[in-house]
């Protein structure tokens, strides 16, 4: 059977779009509230211009931007949309929760959205699929040619622990402190099409892989591959899906700026004939685990020679290195918010600190919900 080509709709500019998954919480019980359908209807009636998507779970809404040339432009759209979502949540008596997972909600009491593909995923994946009380951030960046896609993805995987450590916000699960900074990362990779991408060398290898997945029936069950970083051929982008959902737009803007700068940086290395970085698959896997386990306290592998550095040192140097490019791309102030996150502590650290002091995840949920309102994005 001949391999069917996958058309990549090339992006003439490195534009970006952002998807942010947030959940609805009952302010009395602090448990998740399956009211997304009602909330989306309220927003659609009052603000039809706002783009919201129903997600896997009925407690979740996804805010989706249009195509933007700058991070501030995308964040401004999300801020306007978030205000409309909060207005509807207030009307329903709910709070908004942004984190990688919920620390005590029972997956058995959280219904899946009424969509055939979701029901099929649950039927296929059973126990692990049923547990997906998790939320993330997806950032799309436009790529000019399909032959650049996999070299850039492989290079981005060398920065996986930096991106995850910066956003890790899921320390609690089933009432327990898991000891992990991002338990979401560990859960999500249990799904058969999720996890680290293979290190394809070119677009033809990707087409061959997808051809095999189609013959074997994988795509029929899932619709697509859910790799941590993957091509989005329909949009002409690379989709970076590494990050836990942040509790607020201020921190989301920082990781979006870092992603935008890194993708453009690697794209320009190709322009200049430079070799892009790549790590052995076992180093990439180890770095993913270390970032999920230790977050901002991780010691990460930085070279094929197995050199190691603290991830906080890596992040500080990345801000310095990428600042000239960030200024050109219009996101310097957002990139420099990384220093603020390092000083404040990561989302997982803030939640865990409250839990260790009080023994009560509900207070951590209150504080995290409040961050959605208090940690505002920058004004431009």
Short key terms for the protein model shown above:
380 residues, Creatine Kinase, Chain A, domain 2, two-stranded antiparallel ribbon, 13 strands, globular
Task: Please outline what is shown here.
This protein is of the alpha+beta class. Helices cover 48% and strands 13% of the residues. This is Putative glutamate--cysteine ligase 2.
Q: What's the total helix number?
A: 15
What is the residue-averaged pLDDT? Answer: 93
Number of domains: 1
- In CATH terms, what is the architecture? 2-Layer Sandwich
**CATH-derived topology:** Creatine Kinase, Chain A, domain 2
Instruction: Report the end-to-end length measured between terminal Cα atoms.
Output: 54 Å
How much strand?
Answer: 5-15%
Instruction: Characterize the main sheet.
Output: 7 strands, antiparallel
- Which residues sit in consecutive blocks of at least 5 with pLDDT less than 50? none
Highest CATH level, the class: Alpha Beta
- Helix content class: 40-55%
Oligomer: single chain
Shape: globular
- What would you report as the Rg, rounded to the nearest angstrom? 20 Å
Return the string of H and E elements.
EHEEHEHEHHEEHEHHEEEHHEEHHHHH
Pfam families: GCS2
Catalytic activity: L-cysteine + L-glutamate + ATP = gamma-L-glutamyl-L-cysteine + ADP + phosphate + H(+)
Family: Belongs to the glutamate--cysteine ligase type 2 family. YbdK subfamily.
GO molecular function, one term: ATP binding
């Amino acid at each position: 059977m001949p391999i069917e080509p996958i058309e990549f709709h090339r992006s003439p500019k490195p534009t970006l779009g952002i998807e942010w998954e947030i959940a609805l919480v009952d302010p009395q019980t602090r448990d998740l509230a399956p009211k997304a359908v009602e909330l989306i209807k309220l927003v659609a009636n009052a603000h039809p211009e706002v783009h919201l998507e129903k997600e896997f779970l009925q407690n979740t809404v996804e805010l989706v931007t249009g195509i933007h040339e700058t991070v501030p432009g995308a964040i401004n759209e999300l801020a306007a949309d978030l205000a409309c979502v909060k207005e509807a949540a207030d009307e329903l008596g709910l709070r908004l929760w942004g984190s990688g997972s919920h620390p005590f909600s029972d997956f058995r009491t959280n219904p899946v959205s009424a969509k055939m593909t979701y029901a099929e995923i649950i039927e296929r994946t059973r126990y692990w699929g049923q547990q997906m009380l998790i939320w993330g951030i997806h950032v799309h960046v436009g790529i000019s040619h399909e032959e650049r896609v996999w070299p850039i993805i492989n290079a981005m995987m060398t920065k996986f622990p930096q991106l995850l450590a910066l956003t890790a916000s899921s320390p609690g699960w089933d009432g327990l402190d898991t000891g992990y900074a991002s338990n979401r990362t560990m859960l999500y990779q249990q799904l058969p099409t999720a996890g680290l991408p293979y290190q394809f060398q070119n677009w033809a290898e990707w087409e061959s892989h997808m051809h095999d997945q189609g013959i074997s029936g994988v795509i029929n069950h899932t619709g697509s591959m859910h790799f941590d970083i993957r091509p989005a051929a329909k949009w002409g982008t690379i989709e970076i899906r590494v990050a836990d959902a942040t509790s607020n737009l201020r921190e989301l803007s920082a990781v979006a700026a870092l992603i935008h700068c890194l993708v453009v940086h690697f794209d320009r290395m190709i322009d200049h004939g430079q070799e892009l970085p790549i790590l052995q698959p076992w180093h990439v896997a180890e770095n993913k685990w270390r970032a999920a386990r230790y977050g901002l306290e991780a010691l990460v592998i930085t070279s094929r020679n197995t050199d190691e550095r603290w991830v906080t040192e890596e992040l500080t140097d990345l801000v310095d290195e990428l600042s000239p490019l960030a200024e050109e791309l219009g996101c310097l102030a957002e990139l420099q918010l990384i220093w603020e996150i390092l000083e404040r502590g990561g989302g997982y650290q803030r939640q865990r600190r409250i839990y260790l002091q009080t023994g009560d995840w509900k207070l951590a949920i209150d504080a995290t919900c409040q961050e959605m309102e208090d940690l505002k994005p920058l004004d431009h």
